[in-house]
Amino acid sequence: MDEFIIHARGVNKVYRSASAPVHALKDVGFDVKRGEMVAVMGPSGCGKTTLLNCLSGLDSVDSGEITIAGQSLAALSDDELSEYRARHMGFVFQTFNLLPVLSAVENVELPLLLAGVNPGRARRISRDRVATVGLADRENHLPGELSVGQRQRVAIARALANDPAIVWADEPTGNLDSENERDVMDLMCELNKQKRQTFVIVTHSDSVGVRAHRIVRMRDGVIEDHGS
Amino acid sequence: MQTLFGLPMGGLAVGLAAALALLALGVLVLAWRHPILVKIGVRNIPRRRTQSVLIVFGLMLSATIIAASLGVGDTVNYSIRRSGIETLGHSDEWVRSRESRLFASDYFPVDRAREIESALRDNPLVDGVLPQIREVSPVINPAAIRTIPRTAIAAIDPDRTAGFGNTRTSDGKAVSISDLGRGEVLLNEDAQEELDAGPGARLILVTPTGRHEISVRAVVRNGNLAGSSPRVLMSLADGQGMFARTDQVNRIDISNAGDAFAGNQHSEEVTSTLRLLLADPVAAERLHSVLGTPRNRAMVRAAAESEPPGRLQSRFLRLAETLEAPRPSDEFKSLLSDTEIAGLVGLALERDGRAAEAVEFSALAAQLRLLSVDDIKSNALQDAERVSDGVTRLFLVFGSFSIIVGMLLIFLIFVLLAAARRTEMGITRAVGARRRQLVQVFVFEGVVYAVGAAALGTVIGLLASQLLVSFIPQSDQIGFRVVRHFEPRSAAVAFCLGLVLTLATVAVSAYRVSRVNVVSAIRGLEDETSHASAPAFGGRFSRLVAAAGEPAVRIFRRSAPRPTPSGGEPTPVRKGRPLRWAGTVVSAFWGVIYPFFRQGWPLIILGAYMTVQGTASAQAFGVRAGVSLTIIGAGLTLRWVLERLNVGYPKRGRIAFTAAGLLLILFWSMPFQWLFEIFGELEGGTEMFVLAGVTMVSAAVWVVMYNTSLFVWAANRTLGRIGRMTPVLRTAIAYPMAARFRTGLTLAMFALIIFTLMVIAILTNTSQIAFERPHRVTGGYEITASVPVDLAVPDINAALSGVPGVSGDDFLAIAGSTYIPARAREPAAKVQLWQPISVRAVDEVFLETNRLELAHYDPSYGRTPREIWDALRSDPDLAVLSSSALPARFEQQIEIHGTRYQSSQLLREAPEVMSAFVVELRDPAGARPPMTRTVIAVTDQLADLLGDFPTLTTGTEILGPLSAKPIPITNYHFRLRQGLNPVDVADRLETGLVEHGIEANVNERELRELLSVNNSLNQLFQSFMGLGLVVGVAALGVLSFRAVVERRQAIGMMKAIGFKPGMIALGFLMESSVVSLLGILLGIGLGSLISWNIVNELKNQIEGLRFTVPWGNVAAIVSIAWGFSIIATLWPAWQASRIYAAEALRYE
Ligand SMILES: Nc1ncnc2c1ncn2[C@@H]1O[C@H](COP(=O)(O)OP(=O)(O)O)[C@@H](O)[C@H]1O
Ligand SMILES: [Mg+2]
Q: What is the ipTM of this complex?
């Protein structure tokens, strides 16, 4: 059991805001091993993003239990969850979501500062991270001054800034062309290999899927195939 | 109020309404031509309720401020008019002895009144002629031990009160003078209150003939004959008995047809009829023959022709006509009875080199008037007009800051609206709408908002004005009781003016924000403002030619055979209607010249031209605005040059505008004296304050916003080490600094308001100096007492020995003085008209003991105030002027007096050493030959605090030449022994010397009251500026609301990576604090800078004035401004903190 860094059982999620309730996750069970790179695939609207949000604690669940590295998410308050995310998780989004008013290196050091790392050290670490994703010469550029591929690399650098145990990536290559997609995937695979960080990547690109250790397939809120 | 900035309100309302109608017509035409655009525009309105409320709020401000200013003016006007009407009742004109200004007691036979009465019997414009005795005497109520040293006594002919309104008792019963028995009187309510005497009470009236017992028949309401302030009414016969003036009166009141207000409209006609009636036929005959000589006829005509055109000139010219007749006509008499015209003729004689004849003439002209006629009501109403116009003007000057801030808010709102609708606008453009049509959509939307907002704003402004006037202190210093009032006309003007301003702002904003890059808008990308250079001049010019020539081309085309439109060929878009054609030409023309403006040199030329013009006409506005424009132009040029030199985009703007901005601030903050040394003496009014504020603030905001990276860097450096709050602070600074335009606008709003508040606070604070050294105001005398002329004290020391409770050695000094109205002019001045001045004749003791200080003095007469005053003692030909007799660069006061003497010799602020100059003086009627005095010094401005009519102080030797009759000392200045309480002494003096009607004022008490009035007015203005602050705060609220919407996704991400909800909220609060505090800081800095300059300038007037920042007041301003900015952000901050990350991340 301890080998699973992510452990979820009987997770249900119903969206009630729409006119008719949408049962987005139906009794989902999901385990990920430490250091594993898992791809979640499935048709649009099947519940991939919902799964990711619920597992990472961004969204609440209706029932079921989620444990991350032995810590039950249900036991944490909103503030504790924030803190937990700042220390142990990293996020990469389809639309990058960098703060447009901060430079690359400043964006990357945000999670570090949030985790209470002193500013000098934070700056050193984040410059190092920016260099890792190959943007050392662009560290003081604003996101608006970077190409989309570069922006996603900054986002990855940010996700990795505080050496998180888990990196959540929701369609990280959705806005990228195939060449940039390959670059970004190379980067993630390499980091995964080097640092033994766990990656959960939601995607509907097969070329992304094949590079993961395992592909989990979803349909209509149900996991059809846990892969191998 | 009848006028605004000297323009008649009625005409203003009509003009504005016409302008509005024109605008409305334009909008209607556009609407009719493009109903679809109207639909888009108007349907935008109900989409967001909160947003609409905010927009209406922003748009309503101009109208609110204007309505509030006008409303305050109306109240002041109405209150003064009312108090004038209350005092004067139905009396429109007074007929008095022509020397009555010198003496309250110049009597004339009552037969004069009979003559006037019979002459006016058939005059439909006059409904009452009332002969009376008016005196000011002490009245004692022995029962209640109360005394009024100065009670107005009106002894009225009981048979002639028709036309002067009723007198009614407090319970509404009519009671008239004819009901009174011998020794019976009526008291008005004010007298009743002060004497505590009801019906039946027995009082004692003190007159020059002794004590008289009177009994109160009834108490009557104030107003009409009962007037206001303590007044005793009695029959004329009683009065003549008590004052020993058998068959004499000293005043005849004339009531014009119509009620107390309406009668005034006949004033001019009745006055001239009366003057004619009272002209002495013998003197007229002589005057006519003196002026009728050929030489004099030609001289009068030439003088009249050289007058500036106007009412005075046309009357002067008519006088010249009457000289052609063989005999003095009625018009001749009435024209020469006017002192102004007579003065001009006397002047003409002098210019002709016949000074002796001029003196003779003016004595003769004085004799022409058997009695003098004053259109007293008219004067009172004009005073009301002048004061309220001044008040409104002041409010509008201060209010214009708020109006500007309101306009910035409108602009900001449109910027945000456009940002919110970018995609939508992009799509509209993509499907074929032109930019002009986008502008129209915004305009239609804005019109709907603006009309509603202007109406609402007017109502709120008028309500606010009624609230604001409660800050007007109820004090004798103000001189009227506040009665809330507003004119419907003001509402109309405020509505129209507010709407016009708002619509103009809406139009400009709509034009500015409708620029949208179609592609990036649709794709939702960041707006990258295009920096593409304009096409070359040739291209632009040929476009203009093509646009202008289009109709000709069309005519040519029409005559040519039309090509049949085939399948795919697009139909011509242009329809060539005249309106559209004109629009195209104008925009093409703009296209030709605009790039030049961007190069800056046209602004330099324009600015230089304005500077030269301003220097030539000595107008500060021209010079200041001109130089500022030149600097701005230079900034643009520098940027253009840098562009040529291939300096990068953000950098070149930064260099050029930082330089220009700093230069502007430098220019505006340099000492005024330097400016005058460079450009010569310049004239400027309160509008300079607005120009200074707007320019300095814009320049500072420019500098700040072009150097944001510096701020971010500095902030990160200094504040970057506060632990986990660092990321919050960092984003809180980075966001506003990145949104340069929005932040700049909001900064400017805050800075402008705080700037004004700061200047008000600092300048009000300077008045504290009067407290620190009160002897500069009081001359070092604790008590100033005065007695009526007729009850003057022959020997004050002897009189004091009979006063219980005081002894001779209680007083270190008892100085005496007397004020006499006179006319003055300077032989060296350009304007040679005689103008009113007050001569203060002071005795030896005053010259010996007063401690008044001097602002200017001629060092050859003495180097200290003491030496100067001693010089006056040894030479009776010397005099000292009050500083109110000097023109000022900074006229801080509202103009209360009409024309009066102003020295041409030096300015109040003049830093240079003064040299003595000669002033000519004469009696007001011009009946006696003029005399001269040499002015060797000017008193400190503080000495004018308790009365600021221009005054010339000199020895009592002047009394003889100024008046035919001996004038006694009427004012006493007491310096008390240490340890005595002035209040007690003043009380004892009033009781002990009641026979003399002495009124003793404790100077310190007066001073304190004056300062409290000052402080209340300061509060009044500060609260008025509060309206503007509300706008700035609203702007921050609007910005925050918008930020919550715009940054939803980013906030979701921040939460995802570990920002706690509290941190998000805190970030928003910090963000608005960054903007408000920076604005406050700019405002404080610039406000202090300009105030420092002003205070330095005022130092030349008031020695010892110090620049001090009233920190308490500043702290209050800062905390209120900052506090409200936080409050305005609380709600959006809370909303932001509640954004649900999982949701926010999902949607764009
Ligand atoms: N806030 C919401 N309210 C209602 N339904 C939602 C909401 N968010 C997502 N859904 C629905 O839940 C289902 C799963 O959505 P999502 O997890 O985004 O799918 P995916 O990421 O696989 O495309 C979809 O049918 C979607 O319409
Ligand atoms: Mg998804």
A: 0.88
